[in-house]
Amino acid sequence: MSSLPYLAAGWILLIGLYGIVTSRNLVHAIVCLSVTQSATYLLLLAIGYRRRATAPVFSDIPPDPRTATVDPVVQAMTLTDVVVGATVTALLLALAIQVAKRRGTVDPDELRSMEP
Questions:
Q1: CA 70 to CA 13: how far, in whole Å?
Q2: Can you give the pLDDT at residue 111?
Q3: Fewer CB atoms < 10 Å away: N or C end of the chain?
């Protein structure tokens, strides 16, 4: 088994975290959070991957017990992760729009200095 997917997931996670820490814009921070979450997609897919395995879809014919199949639970978790990530990103972008409308800025440093 190759360690390349795990290294790629770690690299994507570090890039996203660096973007979140150095961001001076709420929208940029939200996009970096989405990049960070995409590392979890790659990690889950790397965990569930099996070499020379078939899809976990069976028909009326019983499958050959010697045939390896990919774990469907990991695929379902990845799909759930994608849906949750899209929902969180949409919610955070909607909140950033409301902050920009009410405060006139999306710079986190300027938002701290304003009184409610």
A1: 25
A2: 77
A3: C
Q: Which amino acid is at 100?
A: A
The model's pTM: 0.80
The whole-number pLDDT of residue 92 equals: 96
User: Which is nearest to 40 in space by CA: 98, 70, 79, 2?
Assistant: 79
Angle at 31 between CA 84 and CA 104, to 5 degrees: 110
SS3 for 49?
Answer: coil
Q: Which stretches of the chain drop beneath a pLDDT of 50?
A: none
CA angle 26, 107, 81 (to 5 degrees): 10
Give exposure, 79-96, as e/b (b: 16+ Cβ within 10 Å). eebeeebeeeeeebeeeb
What whole-number distance in Å separates Cα of residue 71 and Cα of residue 106?
A: 43
Name residue, tokens 């997917």. Answer: 5
